[in-house]
Design brief:
234 residues, alpha/beta, Rossmann fold, Arc Repressor Mutant, subunit A, 2 domains, 5-stranded parallel sheet, 4-stranded antiparallel sheet, 12 strands, 42% helix, elongated
């Protein structure tokens, strides 16, 4: 039996909140609406939610604070931030907390639903036909556990790092087109997401430094390429 997806929705603008909740319910989700971070937090403690959609600017507790508290209870639950201002600081702050996505107001309801679906597909898509283990040079990359192992040292990757590395591995020694990566992972290839992706590429380069035969190179105007030795045939 396919249960309805449960969404924790925190939005202090009453009209927008009601519209969002009605739209999400019409689309077949269960959405509970709260007007401030405090009541959203209490609801999260009591209920079982599959995803959280949080406005950043809220009374009593802002979206960032709420997300951090939610993450201490459940480190896996996906979080989407709604932000009224496309401020780089806000967005970077959101990614630091481990946001899965953010949407700048005004946005279309359809876009929000697309993003929720994409995130839930990724969460569920961890099973199925996806390759769960990649061998890159000296490294073993476990996409399920989001761990990169070299010798006996293992590094836990964030969800975004893991998704980006999975895409690079799937296109190893080929060009991974920038827009394709942005649309697959961030859904939107806007400026902020492109900057964010550059940050994640830099992080991945650091993680992969232990094996000099591997590099991620920029292909100007196209995207990135993960250069790795072909696995030896046994």
């Amino acid at each position: 039996m396919d249960e309805k997806l449960r969404i924790l929705l925190c939005e202090d603008d009453e009209n927008l909140g009601m519209l969002l909740r009605e739209y999400l319910q019409a689309k077949g989700y269960n959405a509970d609406l709260f007007a401030d971070g405090e009541s959203g937090y209490k609801a999260f403690l009591k209920g079982k939610y599959d995803i959280c959609v949080l406005d950043i600017m809220m009374p009593k507790k802002d979206g960032f604070q709420l997300a951090q508290e939610i993450r201490t209870i459940n480190s896996e639950v996906p979080v989407i931030f709604l932000t009224a201002k496309a401020l780089k600081e806000d967005i970077l702050e959101g990614f630091k907390i481990g946001a899965d996505d953010y949407i700048t107001k005004p946005f279309s309801m359809e876009e929000l639903v697309m993003r929720i679906d994409a995130i839930m597909r990724r969460v569920k898509g961890k099973k199925g036909k996806e390759i769960t283990m990649y061998k890159i040079g000296k490294f073993t990359f476990d996409t399920q556990k989001q761990v990169l192992i070299v010798d006996d040292k293992s590094t836990k990757l964030t969800t975004k790092e893991s998704e980006l590395l999975s895409l690079l591995c799937a296109h190893v020694n080929e060009i991974l087109e920038r827009n394709f990566a942005l649309k697959t992972i961030w859904i939107d290839d806007n400026y902020f997401n492109a900057r964010s992706m550059d940050v994640y590429i830099t992080k991945l380069r650091k993680h992969l430094k232990a094996d000099p035969s591997i590099e991620i190179i920029n292909i100007h105007g196209k995207g990135y390429k993960l250069i790795a030795p072909e696995p030896e045939e046994k």
